[in-house]
Amino acid sequence: MKFDFEYMLSLFPEIIKFLPIVLYIGTLSFLLAIVIGFFFSIIIKNKVKLLYPILKVIISYSRGVPTLIQIFILYFGAPQIFPSLSSMNAITAVIISLSLRNGAYLSEVFRSAFLAVDKEQYEACLSVNMTKWQALRTVILPQVVRITIPPAGNYYIMIIKDTSLAFTIGVIDMMARAKLEAAVSYKFLEAYLMVGLIYWMISIVLSFLQSELEYTVEKPYRKEELK
């Protein structure tokens, strides 16, 4: 068995220069997923007529169909029914697919977070003449954010890893570059190992930042408990 360690290291600068496109797709997908998940959770929580059953189907589809198939359906399949979508580029298709899929999962995270906040707190806010929006903004949402940070952070890391599927529809990213290098040199192990290590490093950095954010958000609550 031959393993060319020097060749693997030489691939690092070639692959890492596509990191910005990975972060762009992953971060934008995550932000959109948060917005989608939040509004989905409101509709589910209040069981809004007409929208609720439609949303249940969308969430079931997003959870039940593999991510790669969802990307293919949107990018290659949807233009057959909606010709205007044929102008959609590959990056947009990946962002929409990842946003909808993870928004469906995050809707349950937000719904659980809302349920975890005691109803009596909301009622207490109204009893001291706070408006519904004031109660939501100053009392309920800060607690919801605190509860959702750990699972939402995990979804961000998963989305970043899922961006490696983008090369299947022509996006030139880190995975596409690694595949090209492997095809030229026939050193598949070195190329895929290097791109895997880069994704691993990104996950470690994001996990560290998530821990720091959790610590910062939890700080006021820990002080309160010590009193």
Automatic annotation (TrEMBL):
Keywords: Amino-acid transport, Cell membrane, Membrane, Transmembrane, Transmembrane helix, Transport. The chain crosses the membrane at residues 21-44, 50-76, 88-106, 188-209. InterPro entries: AA_ABC_transptr_permease_3TM, ArtM/GltK/GlnP/TcyL/YhdX-like, MetI-like, MetI-like_sf. GO terms for molecular function: L-cystine transmembrane transporter activity. Pfam families: BPD_transp_1. The keyword Amino-acid biosynthesis does not apply. Residues 19-210 form the ABC transmembrane type-1 domain. PROSITE patterns: ABC_TM1. It is found in: Cell membrane. It is a multi-pass membrane protein. GO terms for cellular component: ATP-binding cassette (ABC) transporter complex. Its main location: membrane. Belongs to the binding-protein-dependent transport system permease family. PANTHER family: L-CYSTINE TRANSPORT SYSTEM PERMEASE PROTEIN TCYL, MEMBRANE COMPONENT OF AMINO ACID ABC TRANSPORTER. This is Amino acid ABC transporter permease. It comes from Candidatus Pristimantibacillus lignocellulolyticus.
